Structures are given as C-alpha cells and as structure tokens.
Amino acid sequence: MQRERAHRVRGWRITLIMFSTVAFAVVGIILLKISMGRASGYEISIHAMKSPPIMEFVGVGCLVIAALSYTLLLRFVPLYVGQLVASVQFGAIVLAGTLVLGETLSILAWAGIGLIGIGIALMGAVSDGDEPPRMSK
Amino acid sequence: MLKLGALYWARQGLGVRYGLATLAGFAIYFVALLLYVFLLRRVPVSQLQAMYSLQFLGVLLAARILFRESITRYQWYGAALVAAGIVLVGVGRA
C-alpha cells in the first residue's frame, strides 16, 4: 500500500518535471520573442505592459529553469523518454509561435515540423533490436 | 566539449584538461544561446525551431565521427526524418 503510494507520488513528480520542462521553455521563448518587439500577433496589446529588461531576464530565467528541469528529468527517466519530452517541447514552441505570436505556417512547413518532432523522438530510441527500449526503475 | 571533459574526467581524473574542456563546452553553449537570441530578433519562432533541430543532427554526427559511438537504426531513421523536416520547412517557407 505504502509502496504503491510512493510509486504514485514518484509518477506525479516526474509528470510535473516533464510539464515544467516544456512549459518554461515555451514561456521563455515567447517572452524573449515578444521582448524583441517583432511579434506580429498580440504585439500592440502586449506592448503596453512591456518592460524590455524585465521581460528578457524572465525569459532567459525560464529557459534556464527549463534546462535544469530537463537535466533533473534525465535523472529519473531514460534518454528516450527525455527525447520524447524534447520533441513535445519542440512542437509546443512552434504551436505557441502560431497561437500567441500569430505566426503563419504553410501546410508543407507543418508537415516538416511534424517530421522533425517524430525524428527527435526517434533519435532517443537507444535499442537497436525489435524490442522497444525499457524504462529504468 | 562537455563529452570530451567527461572522458578526461573518467580517464585522468579532475585535471587541467577536464577543466579546460568543460569550460570550453559551457562557453560554446553560451555563444549558442546568444546566437539563438540574435536570430530570434530576425526569424519567426517556427523557422528558428527548425534550424535549432540541426543541433540534434550535429550531435549525432559528432558522436559517430569524433567519439566513434555506435548509432542505432532508430537514431539514423530519426536523423533522416529531422533532415527531411528541415527541408520541408525551408521549401514551405519559400
């Protein structure tokens, strides 16, 4: 019972680290992009509350936290899971670019982004046999 | 460079070579971050992310060529998909 609870807590902790790895990277990149003043979507509304140095510091800070979270994540999960998170992070940043910054992508470019995401995830596959890589305990 | 530092550490312990290689690794990381921020000013996030994925290919090739690490089938397939994706993003932009 206690073991099961500890297992569940560990699972939640890993999920939280995964989420923070992706979320902080997305927020960091978007904040940096907005602070550059080249955002095309919500630029005007955000411009009013923009304070460039603070935004840039927070953006870089978020990227540092994302990098630390990723390093921490790799302590608990195998590399292929880490690469899966990296591929999700990759897609989330592109998605945030289109949703928050109003960037547009052609269908061909979206297909390319999809291929890159799958490719990054595949590159984390360390097993060369037919068996899928196993999660470390 | 960080990998080289780790190798020096494993073979010779924490010495000058380890320190220099690790320091160089962090310095290169810092320069890469500056370049990323510099490009962020000029290029849309989605296209910059496609360029950024080149690093996965670079690291894979460096691991194979410089450190003679074995690369699995899946990793080569992944590298091919990343390369194809970058081409598609480039063509889709034009």
How would you briefly describe this protein structure?
The complex is a heterodimer of chains A (137) and B (94). Chain A is mainly α and 137 residues long.
Number of domains of chain A: 1
Level of helix content of chain A? over 70%
Uncertain regions spanning at least 5 consecutive residues of chain A: 129-137
Specify the biggest β-sheet of chain A.
none
Helix and strand composition category of chain B: mainly alpha
Oligomer: heterodimer
Secondary-structure element series of chain A:
HHHHH
- What is the CA-CA span between the terminal residues of chain A? 18 Å
Write down the Rg of chain B: 16 Å
Radius of gyration of chain A: 18 Å
Number of helices of chain A: 5
- Helix-strand pattern of chain B, N to C? HHHHH
Count of distinct structural domains of chain B: 2
User: Could you tell me the mean pLDDT of chain A?
Assistant: 78
CA-to-CA gap between the ends of chain B? 36 Å
Shape of chain B: flat
Spell out the key features of this protein.
heterodimer; A: 137 residues; mainly alpha; 0% strand; globular; B: 94 residues
Topology:
The complex is a heterodimer of chains A (137) and B (94).
Chain A: H1 2-35, H2 43-48, H3 52-76, H4 79-99, H5 107-123
Chain B: H1 2-12, H2 16-42, H3 45-52, H4 54-65, H5 73-93
Helix pairs in contact in B: 1-2, 4-5
Overview of this structure, please?
The complex is a heterodimer of chains A (137) and B (94). Chain A has 137 residues and is mainly alpha-helical. Chain A has one domain. Helix content of chain A is 75%, strand content 0%. In chain A, α1 packs antiparallel against α3 and α4 packs antiparallel against α5. The longest helix of chain A has 34 residues. Chain A is globular. The relative contact order of chain A is 0.14. The C terminus of chain A is likely disordered. With 94 residues, chain B is mainly alpha-helical. Chain B folds into 2 domains: 42 residues, no CATH class; 51 residues. Helices cover 84% and strands 0% of the residues of chain B. In chain B, α4 runs antiparallel to α5. The longest helix of chain B is centred in the first third of the chain and has 27 residues. Chain B starts with a helix and ends with a helix. The interface between A and B is large, with 39 and 36 residues.
